[in-house]
Amino acid sequence: MLQIISLLLENKPGALMRVTGLLSQRGYNIESLTVARTLDPELSRMTIAVEVDPGLRQQVIKQMNKLINVLQATDLTESPAVTRELVLVRVRTAQQTRAAVLKEAEIFGGRVVDSSTEGFAIEVTGDPEKLNEFIDVMRSYGEIEVTRSGAVAIGLENKKLRLQPPVPTRAGNELEENVQ
Amino acid sequence: MSTLMSGARMLLECLSREGVDSIFGYPGGVTLPLYDVLYDHHIRHVLVRHEENAAFAAEGYARATGKVGVCCATSGPGATNLTTGLVDAMMDSIPIVAITGQVTSKLIGSDAFQEADTFGITRSCTKHNYLVKRLEDLPQIIHEAFYVAASGRPGPVLVDIPKDVFQAQGHYQHVTAIHLPGYKVFTEGHTGQIRRAVQLIRLAERPLVYAGGGIVAAGAATELREFVERTGFPAVNTLMGLGALPSTHPNFISMPGMHGSYAANMAMSAADLLIALGVRFDDRVTGRLAAFAPHAKVIHVDIDPAEIGKNRAPDVPIVGDVKRVLIRINQALAESKAKPVAQAESGCRAWWEQIRRWKQEHPLQPVSSDSEIKPQHLMAEIDRLSEGHAIVAADVGQHQMWAAQLIRFNEPRLWLNSGGLGAMGFGLPAAMGAQFARPDKLVFAVVGDGGFQMSIPELATITSFGLPIKIVVMNNGYLGMIRQWQELFYNNRLSAAELDCFPDAEKLAGAYGFKGRTIEKPSELAAALEAAVKEPGPYLLNVRVSPAECVYPMVPAGGAINEMVLGPPQPVAEAAQ
Ligand SMILES: Cc1ncc(C[n+]2csc(CCOP(=O)(O)OP(=O)(O)O)c2C)c(N)n1
Ligand SMILES: [Mg+2]
Question: What's the predicted TM-score (pTM) here?
Answer without folding.
Answer: 0.96
